[in-house]
Amino acid sequence: MHVNIFPISGFVQDSYNMFEMDGEMEKKKKKKIKKKEKLEGMKKEMDIVSNDSYNELEMRYNTSVTKGMTSTFAQQILERDGPNELKPPKGTPEYVKFARQLAGGLQCLMWVAAVICFIAFGIELSRGNLTCFDDLYLAITLIAVVVVTGCFGYYQEFKSTNIIASFKNLVPQQAVVIRDGKKNQINAYQLVVGDLVEIKGGDRVPADIRIITSQACKVDNSSLTGESEPQTRSPECTHENPLETRNIAFFSTTCLEGTAATGMIINTGDRTIIGRIASLASGVGNEKTPIAIEIEHFVDIIAGLAIFFGFTFFVVAMFIGYAFLEATIFFMAIVVAYVPEGLLATVTVCLSLTAKRLARKNCVVKNLEAVETLGSTSVICSDKTGTLTQNRMTVAHLWFDNHIHAADTTEDQSGQSFDQSSETWRSLARVATLCNRATFRPDQEGIPIPRRLVVGDASETALLKFTELTVGNIMDYRNRFKKVVEVPFNSTNKFQLSVHELEDPLDLRYLLVMKGAPERILERCSTILIKGQELPLDEQWSEAFQTAYMDLGGLGERVLGFCHIYLNEKEFPRGYRFDPDEMNFTTSGLCFAGLISMIDPPRATVPDAVMKCRTAGIRVVMVTGDHPITARAIAANVGIITEGSETVEDIAERKRIPVEQVNKRDARACVISGGQLKDMSSDELDDALRNHPEMVFARTSPQQKLIIVESCQGSIVAVTGDGVNDSPALKKADIGIAMGIAGSDAAKNAADMILLDDNFASIVTGVEQGRLIFDNLKKSIAYTLTKNIPELTPYLIYITVSVPLPLGCITILFIELATDIYPSVSLAYEKAESDIMHLKPRNPRRDRLVNEALAVYSYFQIGAIQSFAGFTDYFTAMAQEGWFPLLCIGLRSQWEDVHLQDLQDSYGQEWVNIKMCDWLGTGFLLPPCLFVCRNRVLVSAIVFQLLLGNLLCYCPGMPNIFNFMPIRVQWWFVPVPYGILIFVYDEIRKLGVRRYPGSKLKFITSLTIFFLSITLSTVHPVSSH
Amino acid sequence: MATTEDKAATKENVSSWKDSIYNPRTGELLGRTACSWGLILLFYLVFYCFLAGMFALTMWVMLLTLDDNVPKYRDRVPYPGLVIRPHALDMAFNKSDPPKYAQYVKNLESFLQRYNDTKQESNEDCPPGDYFMQDDAPEKKVCRFKRSALSFCSGLSDTNFGYSEGKPCVLLKMNRIIGLKPRGDPYINCTVKKDNPIQMQYFPSEGRIDKMYFPYYGKNIHEDYVQPLVAVKLLLTKEDYNKELAVECRVEGSDLCNNDERDKFLGRVTFRIKVVE
Q1: Rounded distance, CA A198 to CA A732, Å?
Q2: What is the least distance, in Å, from the CA of A911 to any CA of chain B?
Q3: Does A793 touch chain B (CB under 8 A)?
Q4: Which of A192, A214, A304, A1022 has the fewest CB neighbours in a 10 Å radius?
Q5: Is the pTM of this model over 0.80?
Q6: Where are the domains positioned within chain B?
């Protein structure tokens, strides 16, 4: 075994000490350390030894780079460090999770109300009033609503499984370890620090390992760093940053190619990079969702109003002359009457409906409240690979005939192609076709070429697909040019060549084709093909080449040079023995054919989506693990960096002044790499985010992503990502969006939302739906608030002027929880105002779900009209049954007197024990044809409401159960004038809003119809004869 | 100028919450100027006045549509309830302790004032046994029901209505319902839920309610109408004292409902009585 004992050792600096300290500290760390500190610690860059010599490694771990550890010592270490697996964090107990579901804003309100009900019931009971069970029923109903919706929420949360579980799937089961000089296959969890392990293509790396020996070893780091290309792993230390250096392979990444690389384990279990990410992700707390904040604000308003009203009428009742205890009961009843019993259910159902609608549009929402979050989002931190881009290398540009030609990079090949008539193109295509080892997997005839599976590395795949698309039938083409010899790419000569026979059997020359790093290729060329003519490669062409190379490189593309030569027939006759190792053939003086550059191109829909975000006032920030140049190119391509925007560096270059002299505020765009970010203080980062509207972060580590997200988090931040490395940021974000196809399970679990089609454009749909649901929830709440007043005023009138109680508690519950739920929910189906995506995101501090104007409008204007409508109906019904309005006033005590069985009405009739008189109708309505065309769901909601109302009213047997009585059809029409009044009133108001735009009341416009409908409320006395 | 502004700014920081209640510089009270508040109050004044006006108007129109004498709908009172006097469903008294039963006696006495023979003299002596129909008459006459018809329970001969002797009288009356014409021959029958029945005396005899007292035409045009009464004298014996007795009385012999499941007062009444020796 060839072992390089002294790799590039570099400086043995603090990192050694840091690591040791880290290790010691971790040993000393008892669980008492506060979570926050732990989190801060994890946010720091991790220090992993990447540049110690093998001797040092051996010394430290008491191992050998050839023989491995001794089994006994490994056992000791295992006992010390614990097994090499990811420990699940201490999970929150299930009952705590469930309890959390019962302790939201609205829920708390309802708990308080239920307790008040119990107290009121207790007071009534102690006074010997055994007949009044309303309070008890109300309390039970309130608790039932909380518990049922709580179960619903708990179920939602339960479905999103434990985060750490998904990390476990990444861990390899078996590993080949060298101990005592012998190769063994053992379970991966038994590995310890210092173990020598062997990995080969297809294996998962069993821990964080330092590569000791390797041959063409490549690992797929994409889930960890976001780099879409396989990364070479070799013993040399190439970078200080452990994430960038080549001699460290990470736990859970896959080794794609290479035979039997060996490495020494330097970290196991939770101390590995992935382990730290896992604990980071599970350690980051979830932010409170904006909708939860809004609902709490709403609850504050409700509670304030309830107490205000309750207290006012307490004073009034005392003043009128009620006993203190009675006034207290009134106070409680008013407070409880303020609780919108149905709202919790309405909100939950509205959100679920939107979640369902989003799911149909490929956005799966895991946490219900997150549905709205996207609508409030003002910053999207997007990952590049796979989200903005297609996650596949594609040929983007070609340079031949001294022109840069753009290739079609769209996913479905719908773009424009370039001019393919040139003779040079045919030569270039031939080189690209022949000098390519990639092949299609068999049996893929039906699949579109861009989606076919290919055996080969990313750039060869790109070239294969490209040539298949442009030239066609590559396999056949290659067969015609029989391959004689091939020299594969290696990192020293940086080119790849092959020698082929010509397709013309009479032409006995060999064709040598070569591709590789452009500058290396150019070195070997003496001529250049221009329009099919071989011209000498002079200074002028060299310069043209350089310009093209720089241009393409500046686009963030990976450029390859192509050249060929027809080998001299005499020198290399048929049957000549080409030796790939010796290279006993011409490899210089070739003819340069052109450059082909490749990139992972943006998805076709992304620029449009980014544009839409921009018009919607949402800032898109790119945060990627990829290189700054590539990141910037893609950012420019998709519009994250707009045309004409310059970075500080650009300005410096343009003005030919040092970077320091540029006024940072002049630069709209800014590209910050992970290295720069490391040296920035959080204030500087905030500054940068504030000063540059167009930001790109490149080469960022998971910790840095987290820091970036935190810095953005003054406003509401959405984060997209697919890799394991994204999961902490996804968790930290107000809304984490994971990719459904490319996304790792870890990312999916940490996210609140999953894009099934991995398409950034779906986010725009999410934003739209989120904003829509916010607007619609406003309407739902306005509807609920409006309803509150006509439900409350009967009680107030009952207290103050002592009329028989028009609307009983049970009836209110029926209205809230049965008949009115569907109409409230149907508001979730309201169509978007057309300009919903042209508005800025709402300001979480100013644009509240429920504001003063809405409350005032609902309560004191529309609610008042409805109350009058209700009372009109009530008094009408009473009068028509024989109780004139003036008689009603002050009738309460007699009406409720169970001993009074001959109460006289206005006509002298004597009534038996008229116990109840329910104002059932608040929600019962006639569907005026006015709004038939408006919203189909609403119409069905109204039909539903009518049917249910009628069922409650007219179903035989109902009177026995709930004391509901069939009401007269005529009474349904009594409030119609008020309905018309509301309609006219709101039309006038709308006119005013239109004339004076910017009014706060604008959004209520569409409510008219609902108010109209609910005003058609009816009253009906219910008597037990 | 600048300094004052600065001062104002700092002051604003200090007293911003105070300003939200009253801002002395702009004269804003709770975030609005007096003028703004005035306008708002004016708006609500006009708004609520308008609503109240509309309410009054609809009430007025509605009342205009009502008949003075007959309620628009009478479906809620198809059958009369049965009530007792004295006005108590739980009676308990000591027969030898007058203050204990004085309230019942007083109650009965005042109730029977309208039935005083002197008053009833002016009323019509209707032909018994049939409805006293007077649909077309503009002035409805009232059928006479003399207090004396209640005999021992009239309170005339025994001003204590039998309470002092431990054989109390209870008056039963049917609720008035406009246009009610009971078919058959209604009479009151009382039972005691007890093993050995209690003797009872009914006045008028057999507890009959004569049909001539029906129908009732409403309080406006049938002003002095008096309902027919039935008195029940519970002839309690020594062994019935000191026990709580549940007495149920029903209207029998007619189409009037007396067995509604939910309404225990429809055509029947149950009261408890306890006489202490």
Answers
A1: 36
A2: 7
A3: no
A4: A304
A5: no
A6: 4-64, 82-276
